Amino acid sequence: MSMKIALIAHDRKKDEMVNFVTAYETVFEHHELYATGTTGTRIMENTKLNVHRFMSGPLGGDQQIGALVATNEMDLIIFLRDPLMAQPHEPDIIALLRLCDVQGIPCATNIATAEILVKALDRGDFAWRELVHKYKPGIDQ
Description:
This protein is α/β, with parallel strands linked by helices. It is built from 7 helices and 5 strands.
């Protein structure tokens, strides 16, 4: 099953994201990839992967991905955050993480958790997402 995966990385985490995606390129090539602007560009420059790019995070890219999360159209988020640097768009980041919690979408915010999720993805442990897509409840339910 092809999954929709969002890849987001703060500036000081972009190299780490590129290295991570490169290491697991054979896993990611079977899925639909989405990313905020610069992160997506860097991934495409360093791999053979195709990435749908949204705007830069501070310019609304986090919110664009959040819109897909809110409608349960995203299956997995890898968001390598820089916890030691203040972000001007922190409210957007918190909103995206909150939406992941509301929709029950797995979200890794560091490389250790990202690796666990990608290894589970490679094993096929996300088959339960098919049921979510098949029986997606409406807003009124």
